[in-house]
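On clarity, I found the account of how folds are encoded harder to follow than it need be. What matters is that the chain and its backbone geometry are given together, residue for residue. I therefore recommend that a typical entry be quoted early in the introduction. An entry of this sort, consisting of the sequence and the corresponding backbone structure tokens, reads as follows:
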Amino acid sequence: MRADSSTAIHFLLASRQCELNNLRYLLKNGELVGKVSQLIHTLQCERGASNLYLCSTGPRFADELARRVSETDVAQGPVMDSLAQLEKSTAALPQSSRLFSGVASVIYALSVLSPLRRQILERALPQPKMTAFFNDIIRHLLALVSEVTDTAAEPAVARALIAMLSFMQGKEFAGQERAVGAAAFAAGLFDDDSRRRMAELIDSQERCFERFRDFADEANAQRFSSQTTDSGFERLRRIACTRTVAGSSPEEESLSWFTLASRRLDGMKQIEDGLERVLMEQCQGCIDAAERACHDQQADIETLMRRQGEQPPDYAVFVAGNDEVWLHGEGLRPRLGRSLLTLIRQQDRRLQSLDQELSALRVTLDERKQIERAKGLLMQHRGLSEEEAYTTLRRLAMSQNRKLIDIAAAVLTIAEVLPNHPEGRRG
């Protein structure tokens, strides 16, 4: 390969084409996130119906459960199809290793659904364990969305992905709150543990929705802020967080709570769908802009080379530096050399600006992922629920007057020196 102006032009165009290919890859991932969002929603509905079925007597909610199971199966198909396409299109990309690891976890988690459903129908599984299984499946799906978010190489798309992921996490905590409340109302028992879990889940929702507001587009953030919570739901929530004795009709209160909490989740799903539309619009808008930029750059270069062909054969070559230095020989004349150099420098400055913005966004993502990994370790090795693991990390941070991310990093560091621990085997 010869080092001349035509080679520089070739790689300048290749740089633009790589950006365009990455954006098209992001569009596919954005479509996957939308399908995962729908699957998570159907799983949340199935978890709720399973709650009602296990907490009730007789086959009262069997038909509702069967309907929700069917909806989940329908939503699972497009996700699996997208995952198959993902393997074909991204296997050569450097970020594929962690992404495919997340895919493997999701597929394994989904494989648990069939035996889980059999035990639910046979009433052979306690309600808390059933809820924990569904929570774990959804947690793996959210972790996959997190890995997709980490691959975003365009700031506008990255912000849209962070907003959607944060909202999906908040909605999941709301779904878990529905499950805990339904079980407590049905049992007529509001002990310290159920009240504590309710308070932790409410706090977890607020944290996720606060992060969502930081990154969401103005329209969806405003839609969420303007949503009014049903007064009946707030009344039952206060009861669940404060009551210590059963009400007069536990099953009716459980069904009322479930209905109102479900209505709240359905409202959240509408906002989630709006966030998905914004994500896809951002992806397509970036692709359109990149295609126009590629076309314009190609036209500029064609004009440059046409002018080059009109010049006499006695050329000069520009050597970059603090000063303009010209050497006689093959190459571009000074005016044309400056034009090519301007294109290269514009591309370089634009990529540097994108990198700086992405670096700031990735700090947020990296911190969140470290906290999630630390939570996972505590859940695995201390048998804690997700909200209990977070509360443990936060309590340690407060007692030591340190940031939550510092505590999470310390937990992961300790894990890395343990030879038989999964974190210690990373890399």
About this structure: Residues 250-310 form the longest helix (61 residues). DSSP finds 13 helices and two strands in the chain. The chain has two domains: 5-288, 311-425. Residues 311-425 form a domain with the Arc Repressor Mutant, subunit A fold (CATH 1.10.10.10).
